[in-house]
Amino acid sequence: MKQSSILHLCCMLLVLIGNSFLASYCCMNKQYLAMTLFCFVIVWSFSRIVNTQQKNKRMVLQMLKDFQVHDFSLHYSYQGKSYIDRQITELINETVQKLKETYLHYEEESSYYKTLLNTIDSCLLVCNPEGKVIWSNHYADTQLCGHAFHHLKELEILNPQFPDMLFHIKTGEVKSIRIYRDEIAIDWAITETRYIQKGICYRLFHLRNIRTLLEENEMEAWQKLVRVLTHEIMNSIAPVISLSETLIDYLPLSETTVSQSLDEGGQQQNYDIIRQGLETIHRRSKGLLGFVDNYRKLTKIGTPILSPVKVSVIMNNLKLLFPKLPITFHTQHTDCTLLIDNMQVEQVFINLIKNAYESCEDNPNPQIIISSRYDADRQIYVISITDNGKGILPEVQDKIFVPFFTTKKNGSGIGLSICKQIMTLHNGSISVTSVPHKSTTFTIKFVNLKGSRKSIL
Questions:
Q1: Residue 428 region, left (φ>0) first, then alpha (ψ -120 to 50), else beta?
Q2: Which end of the chain is more exposed for a tag (fewer CB within 10 A), N or C?
Q3: DSSP assignment of 255-311, as one string?
């Protein structure tokens, strides 16, 4: 095409030069009519050359402007163009099409990786050396500050030591920090990677929520321990119970029978001591069996069978279960539908309401408030149970969900642990806040919702 373009230009120049000489010759010989004709040809040839060059310049200029704004819809028509212009136009159109395909390919890749990074359950932050946040994924925005943030110093509201830790962490180190979001403790494991782009050293922070993982591992460890202990204890205690029952049946039933047995056999037997001892063995063995069987409940919670249940149905069932308790309902968005195992979740509410009522026993005016709301920003449904009972001491609040831990005299220490396990299986959460001798609030959060935001609000 380059050779054809040069040849075309040379031809036009030859026509221009030849006609110039002819016009000069006609002028010298006073042939003005011919001179006028040759001058017309000269003007036409010159304007053709200039017009061709201007059109090509305009096409290139328009192409460059479109490239600046990533507009690849540019396409020039071939109609009414010379062979050379058609070749130039074809080349421009092919170049635009290739750039369009390349741009779309990178856009698709960029969109894919951006979607991937925004769906992982880890926080990713990219910062410059001054601590300015260049980029963060969606999980970081929602799980840290609850909104997009622009500098590491903004994380001071979560923990005053948070920004300083991020500034001083080194590549290869793993540090942890605890923050509180909506009264829920979250433990983050932090790692850092550095990379250089255009001479600037950027830092990529990776934050993983390890609290959930720790709780799951802890619960699994407790379940394994309980399975082993209950298996061994029940295998040992069952024969003792059976043997004590058999021996009690073989004892004489009255003192007359005892006297006859003593007279006939001449053997000295202490009837009362033997019977009392066997009855004590039997009673305590049965009690231990029930105690162990109670702990086995921790290992019997199956995988939830999820089904859509409206919040209004849950609240109505609670009203039917506890008609005589002083419960006040403050519920919102009860048309919201949760994807839950209704039997398991109902057991959670039963345990919490019973605990709330027991906590209020010493209060002359006991009060239990059940409230609910939909958090549109985080797309979770929150249900709270508040009582005005004796409360929970601060040093105990972190332990009440641990299996076998209890502050009650006759408590088993598994009720709240079961609640915690059920909510974990539902990908939800349960937390507690309490002011001793004033109030206690258990907060349950559900993330498995059915329906769009519009249908809920």
A1: beta
A2: C
A3: HHHHHHHHHHH-----HHHHHHHHHHHHHHHHHHHHHHHHHGGGG-------EEEEH
Residue 41: pLDDT band by 50, 70, 90 thresholds? confident
DSSP per-residue codes, 350-364: HHHHHHHHHHTTT-S
pLDDT (average), residues 371-375: 91
User: pLDDT at position 6, please?
Assistant: 55
The three-state (H, E, C) secondary structure of 149-209, written as one string? CCEHHHHHHCCCCHHHHHHHCCCCCCEEEEEEECCEEEEEEEEEEEEEECCEEEEEEEEEE
Contacts of 359 (CB under 8 A, 6+ apart): 387, 389, 390, 391, 440
152, burial (CB in 10 Å: exposed 0-12, middle 13-18, buried 19+): buried
359/266 Cα distance (integer angstroms): 60
Q: How much is the pTM?
A: 0.50
The pLDDT, as a whole number, for residue 338 is: 93
Q: pLDDT tens digit string along 208-229?
A: 887 666 666 666 666 666 666 6
Please state, in angstroms and rounded to a whole number, the distance separating the CA atoms of residues 19 and 352. Answer: 105
Q: Is 132 helix (H, G, I), strand (E, B) or coil?
A: strand
- The predicted pLDDT at position 2 comes to 43
| φ and ψ of 372, to 5 deg | -145, 155
- Whether residue 253 is predicted with pLDDT greater than 60 in this model: the reply is no
* 195 strand-pairing partners: 202
Contact 395, 415 (CB under 8 A): no
Position 457: which residue type?
L
Answer whether residue 89 shows pLDDT above 80. no
Quick one: tokens of 322?
A: 């506890």
User: With left for phi above 0 and alpha for psi between -120 and 50, is residue 367 left, alpha or beta?
Assistant: beta
Q: Give the end-to-end CA distance of the chain in Å, rounded to a whole number.
A: 65
Taking residue 159's Cβ as centre, other Cβ atoms within 10 Å add up to 15
- Hey, how many other C-beta atoms are within 10 angstroms of the C-beta on 324? 5
CA 339 distance to own-chain centroid: 17
* Two structure tokens written together for 413: 């220490």
Tokens of 78: 């071939």
